[in-house]
């Protein structure tokens, strides 16, 4: 094993070379046999994925068609109509919350359904690039390890680095990311259920231009708060914080008007909850913007179609991968040369002794032909 080291500023790298003897025929055969089992499992999984996807697509399409035929639009979102109790209703309006969401540690306060604090730490990151080549009858692997400092939202464990010395990261962040969610969200007189609130995920970055530095040891630069002595030249372990929000729930001179959404759900008193269809599915739809009931269902049908084709493609890919793994053993036998032909000979000999084999040798010599064909393709 050999290694070379270099250091170019914040980028460091070294190269490690390992060598292994070329695997023998039995070892390659053992590896491909394991691949056959994995391929079989993948092949069977592809059928499960394809068939369950078709069932899901049909069930969803049937539920959407049923919902479109039953949905009603109340005359006003500011009145809970008793005649719509238990029915599928179409509601459009601006979001409203009862109180501001805030992060007092940084002086952030705003009316929104969700407020998210993002925390990133300046850390060492290892990048690994490998290439294999054959030399002196051995398979050698050259691995190049590069180390760069980057802002990352997750702690990068330096314990797993090939060379931790000089690239050690802190084991935790002093400040953690979190998301605050308003407990009650309304559209007019109607309260959104937890499932609808979860669908409000159109996060936008929050400008910090009008905020002051919250503490002496925190510096604001642009839309970031830095826990650093010098944000321009950060050190490993320094933190930076920024914010985003979703579902503005009040008109704001800087952020704009309150966010408007379209909801299709079952009316239960003043609550908007999931609606159960005859096909056994549930309807609980939320779209960002002002849409008619027909347009909202059309969007859902389009989304269902795209998801169906995406899962179909995944199923076909899994099927192809499974078949490739199962047939790889033919290539292994083809590489073995005389070994492979020797293994095939016992299959061919009985064929040659059969009556009429001299006049019809094609089917009987097929094992040898397959091995020779697969070897010629390598």
From TrEMBL:
Location in or out of the cell: Endomembrane system; Endoplasmic reticulum membrane; Nucleus envelope
Main subcellular location of this protein, as a coarse class: membrane
Keyword Nucleus: yes
Any GO BP: lipid metabolic process
GO cellular component term of the entry, any: endoplasmic reticulum membrane
Record membrane topology: Multi-pass membrane protein
InterPro entries: TMEM43_fam
Pfam families linked: TMEM43
UniProt KW keywords: Endoplasmic reticulum, Membrane, Nucleus, Transmembrane, Transmembrane helix
Membrane-spanning segments: 33-51, 309-331
Family: Belongs to the TMEM43 family.
Protein name: Transmembrane protein 43
The species this protein was found in: Marmota monax
């Amino acid at each position: 094993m050999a290694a070379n080291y270099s250091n170019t500023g914040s980028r460091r790298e070294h190269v490690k070379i390992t060598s292994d003897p070329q695997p023998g025929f039995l070892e390659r055969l053992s590896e491909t046999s394991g691949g056959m089992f994995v391929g079989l499992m993948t092949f069977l999984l592809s059928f499960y994925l394809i068939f369950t996807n078709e069932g899901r697509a049909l069930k969803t399409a049937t539920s959407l068609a049923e919902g479109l035929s039953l949905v009603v639009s109340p005359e006003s979102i500011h009145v809970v109509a008793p005649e719509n109790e238990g029915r599928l209703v179409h509601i459009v309006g601006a979001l409203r919350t009862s109180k501001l969401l805030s992060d007092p540690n940084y002086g952030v306060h705003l009316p929104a359904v969700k407020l998210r604090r993002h925390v990133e730490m300046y850390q060492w990151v290892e990048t690994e690039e490998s290439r294999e080549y054959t030399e002196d009858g051995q398979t050698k692997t050259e691995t190049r390890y590069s180390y760069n400092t980057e802002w990352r939202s997750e702690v990068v464990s330096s314990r797993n680095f090939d060379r931790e010395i000089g690239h050690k990261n802190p084991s935790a962040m002093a400040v953690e990311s979190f998301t605050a969610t308003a407990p009650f969200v309304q559209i007019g007189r109607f309260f959104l259920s937890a499932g609808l609130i979860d669908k409000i995920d159109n996060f936008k970055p929050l400008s910090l231009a009008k905020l002051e530095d919250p503490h002496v040891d925190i510096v604001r630069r642009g839309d970031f708060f830095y826990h650093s002595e010098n944000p321009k030249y950060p050190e490993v372990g320094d933190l930076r914080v920024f914010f985003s929000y979703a579902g503005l729930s009040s008109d704001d001179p800087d952020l704009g008007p309150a966010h408007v959404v379209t909801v299709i759900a079952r009316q239960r008193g003043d609550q908007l909850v999931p609606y159960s269809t005859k096909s056994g599915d549930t309807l609980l739809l939320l779209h960002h913007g002002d849409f008619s009931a027909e347009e909202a269902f059309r969007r859902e049908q389009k989304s269902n179609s795209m998801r169906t084709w995406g899962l179909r493609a995944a199923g076909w890919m899994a099927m192809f991968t499974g078949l490739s793994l199962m047939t790889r053993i033919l290539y292994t036998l083809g590489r073995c040369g005389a070994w492979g032909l020797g293994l095939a000979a016992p299959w061919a000999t009985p064929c040659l002794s059969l009556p009429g084999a001299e006049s019809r040798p094609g089917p009987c010599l097929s094992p040898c032909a397959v091995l020779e064909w697969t070897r010629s393709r390598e």
